[in-house]
Structure formats: C-alpha cells, structure tokens
Amino acid sequence: MPRCPGSGFQTPTHTFSTQVFGVPSVRTDVALPKTRSVANTVNYGNEPDAMQLLAPSRSAERGVGDEHYLKLTTRQEMQELVTEAGIDLTGEDFDIVFRFAADADGRGEDRCCLDTFFRARHAVLAQSLAVPMPF
Questions:
Q1: What pLDDT score was predicted for residue 11?
Q2: Which of 64-70's residues contact partners 24+ apart within 8 Å by CB, and which partners?
Q3: Which of 126, 95, 129, 127 is nearest to 112 (CA)?
Q4: CB of 121 closer than 8 Å to CB of 104
C-alpha cells in the first residue's frame, strides 16, 4: 500500500488560537427574559445544579429562591420579614444590624438584601459575645 509522503491533514500543535468558536453553554452575556418559557432552552446561569435538585434547601421547598435573598429591600420591608420570621430583634438592635448591612452592601442607599442582613446580624452577635466569625 502506498504511503503519503506529506504529513497529511494534522492540526499543528505549536500554534494556539485565541479565537473562540461557538456559543457558551451558560449565557451570561444575554439578559434574562422577564417571563420564562418552557420552550426556551437557553441556560442563563440560574438553573439549579444536581445537589440543589437532589437535596433542596428548606427555603427552596417553600418557593424561596436565591434571587429572593439578594433582592434589595427597604428598612420597613426588612422589619416585616424579620417580625414574620419570628426573630426577636428590638428596635435599637434592628437599627444597628440594618445600618451595618446597608453599609456592607455599599450602594449608598437605605436598603440591603436579606443575605447581607443575616450576615450583619451574625457579625453583631459575634462582636457582642466576643466570638470569632465562622466565615
């Protein structure tokens, strides 16, 4: 059988291209649509992973997603959430935690997200008890 004298159609290994081919599987470059459609198969990066599907958190079972923890809320809305959750924070303690959380969010507004509020609450409790922070 005759052999080909050339190197054939091999891809050169010594050249590296910076050109990107195709579309990324997670579309962070496209804005989320306002309404979700079953026919839309685009992954916007907000899909649950395998761990969240196999062992969902208690809040996910009740319909509270990650986006709810990161939504900015006003002082009054946060006070209502804390009261309805049964967390005992007096007016002065709530004001301290809320100011700390609003400063930590760094948006210059009198608003903070629920996640930052609870982190600020843990920080204030750790300072008052002189306990090192776990995070």
A1: 56
A2: 68/114, 69/113, 69/114, 69/115, 70/113, 70/114, 70/115
A3: 95
A4: no
The rounded distance, in Å, linking the Cα atoms of 64 and 37 is: 20
| Residue 96 near residue 124 (C-beta atoms within 8 A) | yes
Q: Which residues share a beta bridge with 112?
A: 73
Range with the poorest average pLDDT among 1-5, 21-25, 115-119 = 1-5
Q: How far apart are CA 76 and CA 86, in angstroms?
A: 16
Question: pLDDT (tens digit, 9 = 90+) per residue, 79-125?
Answer: 998 888 888 888 899 999 999 999 998 777 889 999 999 999 999 88
